[in-house]
């Protein structure tokens, strides 16, 4: 058996489902809800529990049942081994439970022989450029990410026009995958380079902690000495004055040394209303690229790849049904494949389209009425243009509110079957005003490409296409 291709999460789900049939929900959630399966080979299955007490209870009371369950799933018997992460017995980030001790995410990790291993916090070696599926919605971001990974980091003085790289898009479309792929590629080619990966919220938390503990210099040293700095979900620093001040100085220090900066966000810099202008201009000084929700062809390709990785056969009509109906994010596509894989392992039998429909009901959104869609349009536009729902529905006529209202009309008329009168009623406007708004947006989109892009982004937000 190829142990590298075993989906540990699917097997863990199968174990929990099996225990749910013989134990109460309370017991299952208590002892197995936070139990992680981290490896399987031909001799043992290794689990990690968050506390010493839970480890002891699971080993004493449930280990034989776990082994019986694994034998049913795998077809052969393995020993169930449980470690505890409470006092550093096992390091989940280093990838080898026997040889590593956990110090702190993002810091230096030492092996038992004392040699130093530099790894970025929250490192994920399985995310590479090779297993990132490229489509029309992400090909530019992918091209920029691979270009940055291929940069000559032994000669940073060479001109770098891709610095910083700013990737934005909704949750679950592959932004973090690209960050890990960049990290993997550079780590392999330049093992001596200092790579620092952090999430925006964690950057803020670490800064606050350093201020409280008076360890400001150590904090600055950690980030400003980086050869490559990757910050995921940078939107979380917006609105936080001290964090933006520190990030501004860190950005300048790294940028002036011609070191690489890569940022991701769920929105473009222009949409971060509480971001300081000096940071916004720096974020926009390099390359900005967006990743949109995957279209049908990309969703189909992702489903085919994930099914293959999970040794799961799905007929073409089933794959087509999934690609047509699961449109929210790539994470949802992965979740569907994992659930179907668990069902296949537990119950067997053919996964025909009717069985699949019943199995994944929670993943398929209910069809919206046009009235409900109107509410979604107002919400999406208010978020996109930085005004409130109340503003759009009010009698305010200032430029920002008026433009947002015009866009609501245009999107409603192009994506729903609502009449001009119905759209007007939903927005507290008469039919003549609706016609005027619709024409205004059409004309502005023809004249202003950036405005056209913002309207199209709002449409994608509403339709998921």
Record the SSE blueprint.
Layout: H1 8-20, H2 25-32, E1 36-40, E2 44-49, H3 52-74, E3 79-84, E4 108-110, E5 116-118, H4 139-149, E6 165-168, H5 175-189, E7 195-199, H6 200-213, H7 216-224, E8 228-232, H8 241-256, E9 260-265, H9 277-283, E10 287-290, H10 296-309, H11 316-325, H12 330-347, H13 353-359, H14 370-385, H15 389-393, H16 399-415, H17 420-426, H18 431-447, H19 449-463
Parallel strand pairs: 2-3, 6-9, 6-10, 7-8, 8-9
Antiparallel strand pairs: 1-2, 4-5
Structural account:
With 465 residues, this protein is α/β, with parallel strands linked by helices. The protein is built from 19 helices and ten strands. It has a five-stranded parallel beta sheet, sandwiched between helices. Strands 1-2-3 form a three-stranded mixed beta sheet. Helix 1 packs across helix 3 (52-74) and helix 14 crosses helix 19. Residues 91-123 have low confidence and may be disordered.
Q: How do you describe this structure in short?
A:
The chain is an alpha/beta fold and 465 residues long.
